[in-house]
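User: Please predict the structure of the protein below. I'd like the answer in structure-token form so I can feed it into my own downstream comparison script.

Assistant: Understood. Taking the following sequence of 220 residues as input:
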Amino acid sequence: MKSPRIKLLRRLFKVLTISVGSLMMLILILNLWVIEETNDLIYYRVDEVPSRKVALLLGTSKRTEAGGTNKYFKERIEAAAQLYHQGVIKHIIVSGTNNSVYYNEPKDMYNALAERGVDKGDITFDFAGFRTLDSVVRSKLIFGQDEVMIITQDFHCYRALFIAQYYDIDAIAFSADNKDALPMNLAVREVLARVVAVLDLYMFKKTPKYLGREEELTID
């Protein structure tokens, strides 16, 4: 005869297994939703992407934790500069966080773009891009853009576009890479970030941390 303790443990194990399975299924479904809704809006070739007056360049650290060059930063800068010089985009919003005088993503992107020949007058700072949601939403509510090209890596494009769609922004994305393989930790992080993005939009109704005054972009 099985003891009550064994019966309880088996019941708890069954409940835990069902709960974990349901959670994994939810994560999978939400990720597939984000990807399916945005997959056709991502471009990989400069000669194929439709032109946009304004690009939203999403921020990332210039350096890795080990102090080396961050390939994601370099790829985004090179993609944005190439699109600009080819006349596909005319103006670039550099959006990211600036935690201190020693860490300033928009300033780093601005300097890197200027070094690659982008006219400084065609670059606008957004220092309140603390999250992807903040950067995307502020491009519309602060900088008045209903139509943008988002520049980031492929894995990040889906989430950024999904947020843009929710806010009725006519957005396309240019991938700064070509579906490069991701380190496992980054892949897992992005899978979970997509789930958080869906919950932020549809359940928690999250908005940018800071909004403030509207800014008009000067575009020739």
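That's the full token string. The chain has one domain: 4-202.
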